[in-house]
Amino acid sequence: MTINYFEFYDIPESFEPDEALLKKKFYALSKQYHPDFYANEDEAKQQEILEISTINNKAYQTLSNPAKRLEYILKQHELVNEGAKPQLPADFLMEMMDLNERLMEVDDAEQLASIRAEALAVEDDLSNELKGLTADYEMLNDTAKEDRLNSIADIYYRQKYLLRIKESLNTFASRF
User: Fold this and answer.
1) Helix count (H) and strand count (E) of the chain?
2) Rounded distance, CA 56 to CA 5, Å?
3) How many CB atoms sit inside 10 A of residue 83's CB?
4) Where is the J domain (predicted)?
């Protein structure tokens, strides 16, 4: 059984949780389940406390980081998994293939800068679209949330694809 980190902290599932509340819950549980307070307990109790403490740390590391939180929510809804081959929009794929092709033929730093600027513009567009989709997420009903999560997963996979191009850009940048 996997623990739902939002339920663990008793906060609503959100792409933009109350950061102060999250930190407050983390510190309260850190104090409550600190292994040192249970040093005189039996082995089973100490192990239980250690597990809760570990979950608390993992939950906080995940939910306090926007990128990890986004991926976590999508995984919770089984929209992201290792080795998945998502169906990306054809126009996006064409744009990325064009960027990639031009990257392979780049001759100078100026061309590279132009390609980098295009990639950053696409990244900004995706980030802005993502902000719009995640802002009011927790206010939606379940059906609307499911629809919204599919759109968010689409952007997640497009960002992953773009990340590979940005990594190639960095590799090519070292040549100039």
Assistant:
1) 7, 0
2) 8
3) 4
4) 4-76
How many separate domains does the chain show?
A: 2
User: What is the domain extent for residue 50?
Assistant: 5-76
Can you read off the two tokens belonging to residue 38?
């249970």
Residues 6 or more apart in contact with residue 56 via CB below 8 angstroms: 8, 26, 29, 30, 33
Task: Report whether 63 contacts 26 (CB < 8 A).
Answer: no
Given a contact cutoff of 8 angstroms between Cβ atoms, the answer to whether 74 and 84 are in contact is no
- Confidence (pTM): 0.87
Answer whether residue 81 is part of any domain: no
Place of tokens 């192990």: 47
pLDDT at 64: 98
Two tokens, residue 17: 């949780």
Q: Backbone phi, then psi, for 41, in 5-degree steps? A: -80, 170
Phi first, then psi, for residue 114 (nearest 5°) are -65, -45
Same-domain status, 101 and 166: yes
| pLDDT digit string, tens, across residues 104-134 | 998 888 999 999 999 999 999 999 999 999 9
Domain CATH number, residue 103: 1.20.1280
Give the pLDDT score at 83: 76
Asked whether residue 98 falls in the same domain as residue 154, the answer is yes
Same domain, 117 and 67: no
Q: Which helix (H) or strand (E) holds 94?
A: helix 90-104
